Amino acid sequence: MKILVTAGPTRERLDPVRFISNRSSGKMGYAIACAARDAGHEVTLVSGPVSLPAPEGVSLVRAESAADMARAVFDAFPRQDLVIMAAAVADYRPVEISEKKIKKQPGDFVLRLERTMDILAELGKRKCPGQILAGFAAESENLLENARKKLAEKNLDWIAANTVSDGFGTDTNTVTLLGRNGEALVIGPDSKARVAAKIVEIIASPPATR
């Protein structure tokens, strides 16, 4: 299969030295890309800014902002059999970007934010018959309820749900893999490499073999 994986955070620039981001390390997405490669698939990895080495045998596309990631994903999407969106894409970005460093001033500083594009929801609208679309839901509360809502609203085939404390910045993870046909499979706690291998095994296999 041709598999596209996204990984890591995005950075939304405020000025030449500051940005809005999150604590995603990219380890889960990179592990999924490596697991898919090891299973014999042709893998494209769209990565936000991370401190991880580029995986061998994987086509790596780097993206800084949510807009960068959207362009890279939309460009590759029509050629993919399976897309696994593991990146933690920023939901908001600054309305105004200063070309010069913002200097400290007396009093408060009010930062106006606007929504970024929901890449996963847009892919759900563009998905063709036969394409498989999977997302991640990192939640701090109501894990399965929020994940099932995202699964339905964004027209996904699978969603891997994990708590923020389980997944962000760690080398291990525990996920509940939810399918559009009612599947609910708990994977872990285990290393992200082994969790990733199980996710790929399940999502990329024909339904009769699961």
Give me some keywords for this one.
two-stranded antiparallel ribbon; 6 helices; Rossmann fold; eight-stranded mixed beta sheet; 210 residues; alpha/beta; 28% helix
Describe the structure.
With 210 residues, this protein is an alpha/beta fold. It has one domain: CoaB-like (Rossmann fold, 3-Layer(aba) Sandwich). It is built from six helices and twelve strands. It has helices at residues 27-38, 66-76, 119-126, 143-153, 164-167, 192-203, and strands spanning 2-7, 12-13, 19-20, 42-47, 59-62, 82-85, 92-94, 113-115, 132-139, 158-163, 172-179, 184-191. Strands 5-4-1-6-9-10-11-12 form an eight-stranded mixed beta sheet, sandwiched between helices. The chain has a two-stranded antiparallel sheet with strand order 2-3. Strand 2 and strand 3 form a beta hairpin. Helix 1 crosses helix 6 (192-203). It is globular and about 60 Å long. 39% of the residues are buried. The mean pLDDT is 93.
The H-level CATH homologous superfamily, spelled out, is CoaB-like
Oligomerization status of the protein chains: single chain
User: What's the mean pLDDT score?
Assistant: 93
| Global geometry | globular
Q: Span between N and C termini? A: 17 Å
Short overview:
This protein is α/β, with parallel strands linked by helices.
